[in-house]
Amino acid sequence: MKKAPIIWTTTLLFSISFLVAAIAVPWYAVAVGFGWFEIIATILALGYCGMSITAGYHRLWAHKTYDAHPFLQWAFAIGGAFALQNSALHWSSDHRDHHRHVDDNEKDPYSARRGFWYSHIGWMLRDYQGTTYNDYTNVRDLQKNRIVAWQHKHYLALTIATNVGIPLLLGWLSGNMLGMILSVGVLRLVLSHHFTFFINSLAHIWGKQPYTDKNSARDNGVLAFLTYGEGYHNYHHIFEYDYRNGIKWWQFDPTKWLIKSASYIGLTRNLRIVPEERVAMAKAKMQLLRAQQKAQLLPNAEQLLQLLEREYELLLARMQDYYQLKKQFVLQKKQALIEQYQTADFKQRYREFKYHLQQQHQHWQRLTAAFH
Ligand SMILES: [Zn+2]
Ligand SMILES: [Zn+2]
Q1: Could you tell me the sign of the dihedral formed by the alpha carbons of 341, 344, 347, 353, in that order?
Q2: What CA–CA distance (Å, rounded) separates 94 from 132?
Q3: Cβ contacts of 272 within 8 Å, gap of 6 or more
Q4: Is residue 33 predicted with pLDDT exceeding 80?
Q5: Which of 192, 222, 1, 165 is nearest to 83 (CA)?
Q6: Distance (Å) from CA 333 to ligand 1 centroid
C-alpha cells in the first residue's frame, strides 16, 4: 500500500525544533549558561502551555467535564496556540475520535496499536486523515463557542504572535535575546510537545489497568508527573466525563487542582465527577476478571471460580448497601445543616423583633405619657 504523503510543515517544524533543543540548547548551557530569569520563565511558560492543553483543550473542550468563565477560556485559547498543537476545535475533534474508536487502526487518529512512533508523533507527519481532516461534525457544540471559533479562525496568527512574540518580549526584558529564544522559544516548545505526545503513546503502553482492559489505556504515576496529571489514563478512558484523572488525594493531578481551585473564585463551575460507587464497581470487576484468569489454570479451578463468583456477588451487595446508606447520610447531613441555619436565622430574627418591640414600646410609652 502506498504511504500517505508527508506533511512538510509539521515534519520540518518538529525536526528542526527538536534538533535545536537537543544540540544548541545544551551547547549554550555549557558555553554561556542560562540565568535564573530564563529558567523560571521556561518553567512558567511550559506550565502555561501544558495546562492550557490539559485543563483547556482536553478536560474543558474535548470532554466538557466542567464549565469555565470566559476569562479562563481566553487564557486557554492563547496558551493552546502557544503550545502549537493545532486549534482547540481540531484537537478536540481528533480527541473525541480517539475516545470513540480507541485502538481502532482506521478510525482512532493516534491508535496505539500502530506502535509507539505512530501514536507519539508519526500520525502528524503524514496526511493520514486526507479529506476527513477538516471534518468537524463531532465538535458542532464547540463551533458555537465564540472563543473556540475565534481561536480556530486566527490560529496561525496566534501561534506566531505567541511563539515569536513571547520569547522576544522576554528576551528584550532580560537583555539576553538568544538565551530566551533557545529556552522559552525552543526548549519549552519541544518539551511541551513531547510531554503531551506521551499521553497518546506511553500512556497506552506502560502502566497498570485497574479499571478496564477493554482498551490499551494505562494508569502511570511517572507519566502523570510529566503530563500535569493526565497519566491516569486508564481511569480517564473509562470515565472520560470526570474532571479528575487522578481521583485519589495523593495522585499527582495539578490539572484537577487548578480546576478545583478556580471553582472557589468562580472561574469554573459544574465540575463533573463519577459516583464513587461506579468507580469501586469497575475496580472490583477488573479484580474478578484477573483472579478468574489465574484460577482457571489451577487444579481445583471449578471450586475456586465458584468461590470467586460468590464472594464477588456478596461484595456487590455490600457495596450497594453501603453506598445507598452513605447517600442518605449525606442528604441527612445537608438537611441538618439547613435546619441549623434556619435555627440560627430564627434566633437572630427573634432578637431583632424583640429589640424593635422594645424600642416601639418605649416610644409608645413616651407618646401616650404626653397625653396625660
Ligand atoms: Zn480524553
Ligand atoms: Zn488515550
Answers
A1: negative
A2: 10
A3: 65, 66, 241, 242, 243
A4: yes
A5: 192
A6: 35
Among the bound ligands, name the one nearest to the CA of residue 198. 2
Q: Which ligand is nearest to the CA of 218?
A: 2
162 vs 89: CA distance, rounded Å? 18
Q: Read off the pLDDT of residues 47-60 as tens digits, 9 standing for 90 and up.
A: 999 999 999 999 99
Q: Ligand 2 centroid vs 202 CA: distance in angstroms?
A: 10
* Ligand sitting nearest the alpha carbon of 57: 1
Per-residue confidence (pLDDT) for residue 1, from 0 to 100 = 60
Ligand 1 centroid–CA 119 distance in Å is 14
Comparing C-alpha atoms, which of 132, 123, 126 is closest to residue 2?
126
Residue type, 153: K
Count of helices and strands (H, E) across the chain:
17, 2
* Residue 343 grid coordinates: 435555627
Q: How far apart are CA 83 and CA 94, in angstroms?
A: 17
Ligand at minimal distance from the CA of 110 is: 2
Phi, psi dihedrals of residue 215, rounded to the nearest 5°: -140, 175
Ligand nearest, relative to CA of residue 204: 2
Which ligand lies nearest the alpha carbon of 236?
Answer: 1
CA–CA distance, 171 with 168 (Å, rounded to integer): 5
